[in-house]
Amino acid sequence: MASTYKPEQARVPPAVQLPVPPVTKFKIALCQLSVTDDKERNIVHARRAIEEAAEKGAQLVLLPEIWNSPYSNDCLPVYAEDIDAGGDASPSTAMLSEAARSLQITIVGGSIPERSGDRLYNTCCVFGKDGKLKAKHRKIHLFDIDIPGKITFVESKTLTAGDNHTIVDTDVGRIGIGICHDIEFQELAMVYAARGAHLLCYPGAFNMTTGPLHWELLQRSRAADNQLYVATCSPARDAGAGYIAWGHSTLVGPFGEVLATTEHEETIIIAEIDYSQIELRRTNLPLQNQRRGDLYQLVDLQRLNS
User: Fold this and answer.
1) Whole-model pTM?
2) Catalytic residue among 75, 180, 201, 233
3) By the 8 A CB rule, do 31 and 245 touch?
4) How confident is the model over 206-248, as pLDDT tens digits?
5) What is the pLDDT of the chain when averaged over all its residues?
6) How many structural domains does the chain have?
7) Which cellular components does GO assign to this protein (predicted)?
8) Is residue 133 within 8 Å of residue 87, measured between CB atoms?
9) Would residue 180 show up in a list of annotated catalytic residues for this protein?
10) In this structure, what CATH number is given to the domain that contains residue 172?
11) Catalytic residue among 81, 139, 155, 201, which?
12) Is residue 7 a part of any domain in this protein?
């Protein structure tokens, strides 16, 4: 009877086998940083937080969304950097590269505004222990919201949406990258899971309206749906800012359990990831064998067409 459900056909192309990670257990740091309008200060401040995280044993450091600039459509073009040019054209990523190399850690560098030609992107860079850029994720789903009397923000006024999934093999496992609003779209997380991700990282800056309602809910949903780890990192809350972040950076385990979290103040969360829990939970609750490929499919168009 079970064979008629065709679970192997529920993912097109078929889901890849979960790769054996380079490490089973390691410490992750979520650096919930205060952000000011002083870009140079923000870069130095982030560097110090990364150093502190490494001193506490973190092998993977995650930074917040837009950590080098205030989060506003007016500021994003002013603070934007040419990441591909590097060097003086991108002091934020130059710092991340140097920190990863000197501290021998993997850094998922939150996100910064990126200038590429005449376009702006909200971009996350991943650096390996050698300091080399391993991946660059441009936010796929732009945050446009209008709730009268609550919040209005139209990211698409300034930014261009990215066009690619970003999944990267690192010294601490296979990581799928999303930025903030990307977490709202379960299809992206499902694609990453089907590509063998151990961990999803979402630098984000949910606000005082969607934060209390959706932030933890979405993280736990993406983790439980796909039976993998989810890590998020927000800026610390600044009540005087034009856009007020919710905070509450969090690590969620593969059963949807909150493993570590915080409130809204600036802090560094150090938590342990144990990848053996993924296999355990997938054995406890074998969702991959229970999918109804006879009724529905998730189609990964990029894999299918490559």
Assistant:
1) 0.97
2) 180
3) no
4) 999 999 999 999 999 999 999 999 999 999 999 999 999 999 9
5) 97
6) 1
7) mitochondrion
8) no
9) yes
10) 3.60.110.10
11) 139
12) no
